[in-house]
Amino acid sequence: MDSKKINFKNIPVQAGIISSIIKLEVDSNNCFQELDDLISADQGVASLVLRVVNSPFYSRGNKVTTIPFAISLLGYNVVRSLALLAFSRSLFSQTRNEMFRLHIWQHSLLTAIASQSICEEFGNAKLNDEAFIAGLMHDTGKVLMFNHNPALYQDVFKFAFENNCTCLKAEHHYFGFDHCEVGAEAVKEWKLPERFKDYMGLDLTTPLADTKTDSVLTWLRAANYLVKAAGIGGLEIDDYDIKKSALIGFGLHDVLHENLLHENFIPGLMEHDTYKLCASI
Asked: What pLDDT, on a 0 to 100 scale, did the predictor assign at position 10?
């Protein structure tokens, strides 16, 4: 079976619009108008943005009915992240399978929030939305494989959990290719920025070459690990020292270890407004 046979076009939200939103220059004089045009051109993105801006988390009491007003209230970066959230939800919404929803959708959502949280711990506010988007998109290849053949991907889940092996190994066993290959192909097909190959096309569980020192990728790898270690997207890991050693391997400094390994870290992510709003698609 060839990973290129996966259908990259059968999605409710238009990938071309998402790619254009990602590529927008926030400091450009035309950014506001271009963002308005792009969001308004896709009903899935526009409806989520309006739903969020009118939710109790953001609402100022007056109903917002236009995209320009929503952008002015939420800001460019929040709206950009919401556009990617709409895109991800459109991929996940095609199934009600509980295992899929927990181990891929909720895993992706929590990884996005965790990645952003780690970014904030490092005090790098400029990369907050990039960290969120990286987490949200990192398992897109799994989503496409599941949507391509749900029954076969359920066998992948079963094989991985019963044999305590990675999804990559299980995917190769049943499909002959893995979600990293599909993710990298999706970046190409959807004309996403080249850096998304690192988010969507790399095995985040293995050591990287010294040249791979990108901060967002470091935070993404740590976030992905922590959520999996909580039993969401992988087998639960209780051993504190094993988890701490993994974080050190990802390049996180000692100050962060206690915060990220605290028993309330994952439950705290689940109290995040975005998780509450979007966990149940």
From this structure: 57
Token look-up 């045009």 returns: 37
Check if the beta carbon of residue 196 is closer than 8 Å to that of residue 188. no
Question: In whole angstroms, what is the distance from residue 217 CA to residue 220 CA?
Answer: 5
CATH class of the domain at 3-278: mainly alpha
Predicted confidence at residue 1, as pLDDT, reads: 57
Spatial CB neighbours of 59, under 8 Å, sequence gap ≥ 6: 53
Q: How confident is the model at residue 198 (pLDDT cuts 50, 70, 90)?
A: very high
Give dist(CA 9, CA 22) in Å, integer. Answer: 18
